[in-house]
Amino acid sequence: MSRTVLICDDAIFMRTMVGDILQQAGFEIVGEAETGVQAVEKFRQLQPDLVTMDIVMPDMGGIDAVREITKTHPSARILMCSAMGQQALVVEAIQAGAKDFVVKPFQPSRVLEAVQRVLAA
Amino acid sequence: MDLARYAELFRTEVREHLAGIDGALVALADGRQEGAVDELFRATHTIKGMAGAMGYSSVEQMAHATETLLAAVRETSAPADATLLALLYEATDALAQHVDDAVDGHDTRVVSLPLLERLASVADSLDGGQASRTTGTWRVPIEEMQAELNAELNSELHAELNAEQSGELQSALQDATPGSATARLVAVTLAPDAPLKSVRAQIVLAKLEQLGAVQGTEPTVQTLTDSFDGVFTVAITSAHSDSELEAAARSAGDVQRVSVRAPEVRRAVRDVLRHVRIDLKRIDALLDLVGELVISRDRLLSVADATGDRQVIATAQEMSRLVSALQDEILQARMVPVGQVFDRFPRLVRDVARDLGKEIVFTMEGRDITLDRSMLDAIGDPIVHLLRNAIDHGFESAEERVAAGKPEAGRLVLRAVRDRAAIVIAVQDDGRGIDRDRILSKAIAEGRADPTLTSLSDDDLVKLLAQPGFSTAASVTSVSGRGVGIDVVASRVRALGGALDIETTPGEGTTFLLRLPVTLAIVRALLVQVGEATYAVPTAHVVEAVEFDDVDRQSIAGRESVNIRGEVFPLVRLRLLFGDSAGDDAGAQLIVVDAGGQRVACKVDALAGQQDIVVKQFDAVRGATALFSGATILGDGSPALIVDVGSLA
Asked: Which residues contact B426 (CB under 8 A, 6 or more apart)?
């Protein structure tokens, strides 16, 4: 059975790109969220194997969403998607409970490595 | 990974964000700072992230510098003064330019360094460099590259030095009381090409912490910055074996010399795609095919009827229903919200109002109303024209407004409303209204109106204003407040198969209404026989059809005209117009068409029914009379030209 993924990003473009990479690797995209609030809601509802999380989103940022999710699901597997110049924020996200990160531009092999690491943990 | 196929999606979505930025800048200028700065920050950040994913470094750098400035503005709640706004506008324009260049394959990395420097220096002057420390600076990529290079060169050396460096850690471990756990030093060298090494180090720490108590790191976690080269040592007390600790550290990923190979990803059966992106050309092709299907459906229905076979008729009708449903679905797939065009208007209105020294409160309604994509590009200019016109001529001066008991700032509303099969776009002002008497006397003076008229209806008004060359004289427009270029708007709207209406009340304001079909691609047409050929006349323009024999003919000003129930219309003999012989008057038909405010009666040989036709645009032959706006294929497979009604007046 394929692993389920929830993709959280406010840009359709990013969701499409991340979705394509994961889908081609056999993952099932079970949900997409555009805001941190949606991310938390959809996580609770869908209980996906993996979450990809953008850092800056409307309503609630990705880091707060990570905190909110790990509060009830400490073992949630969350992969942060980071842009340039966000070292400090990614560190914060990892400390908040995210398991790994990828940086843009996304190389599919790197994304999949990170995903495998997160799922293996 | 083939990024090219994402480029258009990138451009489309970035444009939405740029429009959002424009809107937020207007809000910022209006003093609505709090939400606006957040919105600006988020939109800029999103663009930066998307550009990063595409590898468009020019866009990324410009977005990053802008974001850094915005972060500083947000943190310090600095007031958005004119200088700051001007800088943000400049940065936004540069960003838009870089986006287009990058998508078009010119991501040349030629970013305006002076602009980047100014953004950075204003950000620094606001918050003393705080924002650039938290978001990094635009120079980071270069520093990262340098750091990676250093790491590569020095990693071997560092590994040897690790034992010596960890002297302090040795003592930290001696202080720890491990119980059954034993103290270890874990030296880690990250891969030279690992991105964000300081974050990766955090993950290594997190992994190790699962197996024991971390006593400290060398260098310390706080100093793991951009220049961190990926070589560090962790002191830990743990009950786990060395190999377990090593495996844990490795599991963080990007650890050098340990090959962390990703297991083969099993290619599971692909799940049903939730979204697919389709090239617009494909949708156009689909629409063409469906259009032809619609035509052959009509043919099938008539053939089936002729057989008299109930089963055949029932099957044909079922087919017909399905084809209609298919047509609806495809038209639906082409719909996009008008917001995509509207979103650039707030800034335009703001700029025009500022240039003219007027204070305008601009609101938009119905941004979610959808319109066929083919229509979307075409309506932008007419709306811009009406907005400019309203700001320039529609509103009184602030003093006049106050004297008339109106709010000082003029109210301008752009509204889209769905009205059955049409979209109505309204540009509404609460200005002085159009002076009908002036327009009327001018029209009479120019011989454009019946001298016996004493008042102008809204319909008459629009007909007059839509006449090319009418009331463009400055003396009239400055008094009447209107008229400049309305004919241009009217002809554009007509070319789209739509109509322009005006509602105006002196002292209360004017509303221009653009009534547009939802799609350009399929129109309802009246088929007419002229000579040997069949022509299509869009029904939107057809007012009525009458028997030619039933009307009185007369000559007015040397032009052949017809009188239908007391109303006189110029007569156009289509046979002659299309270069045929005059033909027989007996049994001929007249169709009255609205040629943009002016009605004419066209003589045709016969009416051949109504049909949905698929419009195939064609480029007019150079020098040829512009009588036709396109062509279509009829149910029997024969081609028919579509009459450009606007050209008949």
From this structure: B413, B414, B415, B416, B417, B511, B512, B513, B514
At B483, the pLDDT band (50, 70, 90 cuts) reads very low
pLDDT at position B163 over 60: no
B525: left (phi over 0), alpha (psi -120 to 50) or beta: beta
Q: Which CATH superfamily is domain B337-517 in?
A: Histidine kinase-like ATPase, C-terminal domain (3.30.565.10)
Q: What pLDDT is recorded for position A11?
A: 87
Q: Is the ipTM value over 0.85, yes or no?
A: no
The owner of tokens 């194997």 is A49
Give the domain B143-250 fold: Alpha-Beta Plaits (3.30.70)
DSSP string, B343-410: TTHHHHHHHHHHHHT--EEEEEE-TT-EEEHHHHHHHHHHHHHHHHHIIIIIS--HHHHHHTT--SSE
Residues A20-42, mean pLDDT to the nearest whole number: 92
Chain B positions in Cβ-Cβ contact with residue A57 (cut-off 8 Å):
42
* Top CATH class, B4-138: mainly alpha
Task: Give A28's contacts in chain B (Cβ within 8 Å).
Answer: 268, 271
Please give the pLDDT value at position A70: 92
Asked if A108 and B1 come within 8 Å (Cβ–Cβ), the reply is: yes
Q: Answer yes or no: do A56 and B52 touch at CB < 8 A.
A: no
Q: Which of A4, A13, A28, A81 to mutate to test the interface with B (most CBs of B within 10 A)?
A: A13
Which of chain B's residues have a Cβ under 8 Å away from the Cβ of A108?
1
Among the partner-chain residues A16, A108, A121, the one whose CB lies closest to the CB of B275 is A16
Q: What is the pLDDT of residue B456?
A: 75
Q: Which residues of A touch B46 (CB under 8 A)?
A: 10-11, 56
Flag if B268 and A108 touch (Cβ within 8 Å). no
Residue B56 scores a pLDDT above 60 = yes
- Contact flag A103-B195 (C-beta cutoff 8 Å): yes
Measured distance CA(B603)–CA(B529) in Å, rounded:
10
Judge: domain B522-648, CATH 2.30.30.40.
yes
Q: Check residue A66 and give its pLDDT.
A: 95
pLDDT at A51: 96
Q: State the nearest Cα–Cα gap between B125 and chain A, in angstroms.
A: 20
Examine the pLDDT at B412 and tell me if it is beyond 80.
yes
Q: What residue ranges do the domains of chain B occupy?
A: 4-138, 143-250, 280-334, 337-517, 522-648
Q: How many Å lie between the alpha carbon of A72 and the closest alpha carbon of chain B?
A: 19
Q: What is the pLDDT of residue B635?
A: 66
